[in-house]
Amino acid sequence: MADTILTSDADRPSTSSSLNPSSRIICNVCQKQFSQYTCPRCNSRYCSLQCYKSHSLRCTESFMRENVVEELRQMQPDDESKQKMLDILKRFHTEEEMDSMDEDDILSEETISKVLSGGQVSFDDLSANEKKQFQRAIASGELSKMIQPWDPWWLKPSARTISLGKEGTQLVQLLSEQEVSVSTQDHLGNTGSNEIPPGPETPLPPVRRLSPREPSPLLAVHLVDIVYSYCFTLRLYNGDWKSDAIGSAMVVLSVSSVLGQAGQPETVLEALSYCLEQTCSPAYRHMGGLQFGLSLIDDVISLLSLGAPALVCALCDMQRLIQAAESELKAEKPRKSNGDKVRSKLKLSERKIYFIMCWVHEQPEEVLCSLTAIVRAEKTSALEFAGSNRAEKPKKPETKSKVLIEEMK
After folding, report:
1. Domain range list for the chain
2. Which residues contact 261 (CB under 8 A, 6 or more apart)?
3. What are the boundaries of the region Disordered (predicted)?
4. Using CA atoms, how far apart are residues 115 and 106, in angstroms rounded to an integer?
5. Which single residue of 20, 39, 249, 288 has CA 20 to 30 Å from 93?
6. pLDDT tens figures, 330-348
7. pTM of the entire structure?
8. Could you give the CA distance from residue 164 to residue 257 in angstroms, rounded to a whole number?
9. Does the pLDDT of residue 178 top 80, yes or no?
10. Topology of 2-55 in CATH?
11. Nearest 10 degrees: Cα torsion 389, 395, 397, 398
């Protein structure tokens, strides 16, 4: 990316300098070669790309920041991208309406008698119709009264005050009397799943140490994909991924295109479309389908709007999730070649999460603000579709005659 600086018109050596060697200026950085270029920001003279990178950290960081922000601005949703999102939402809405047309079934007499006699009934003991009704009860919220609701940590007021040190490690924070009381109760017996996950225990290295190449502007898009999968998993496990680290990790890999499929989405629309497809798939449709997916986009917006410190804590929690799954898989007996493939995929996912965590820590506020605005615009398009779809919902046809084939006009 920075190579373009050497070929810009503003930095080309002047003709008068090349024709008159006595007027040529020595490079201000290395003091060895004649300068051929001028920094457009500080007017410093330099001779090569290497000298440009080292002449002023402020100039080079400003250049990188402007490039990333410009890339994000170009990702702003246009009419075509909005229409694509609306088509996807319309397809999901149609599938859900087809499902809602099925007749409700009741529990079989055998299942009822088993429950009344004090026996335990597992999900596998249910018939296909009973399983479908059970999943509908979960989606409608009928069973939520039996489970203590989990409040996501990123929606708490304390999430707005997360602070990290210069190297990414979490700073010591003072707790209020109410927070101390809640924390004490968690240590005495509660799960403590409502606590904000801690930040990195060791300093985060600069991205340039992890990779010699310049970070891709698409990392912002990949961040949306990864954060969505994190919010999805915590919602699914009611905030307690530690109860099933392996299962939680498998959910992350199935929802995230970047982590599970080595995907490279190029736009926020593409990233969200894949995540919504997985959310509305038969495996997870019982969670609420499209409406649940739209609420997860709100979670992504909330996390992005909190800034880099909260995102680093979320990614750090996600890294611990993957590491816990790896440890449990190692403790289990080998399961032929499948176990090795899963561990290999988890290891690669852990590296990706760590890299993007280091990248997020270095990003200025305007980059994350631009990304938040893009995700919010996609959510607005989805809500506009939902509202127009309800307004244009066709009325039930009259029962005078049944038309098997209707001519399309």
Report:
1. 2-55, 80-101+151-183+194-385, 107-147
2. none
3. 1-21, 184-211, 387-409
4. 14
5. 249
6. 887 655 556 678 888 999 9
7. 0.64
8. 29
9. no
10. Wheat Germ Agglutinin (Isolectin 2); domain 1 (3.30.60)
11. 180
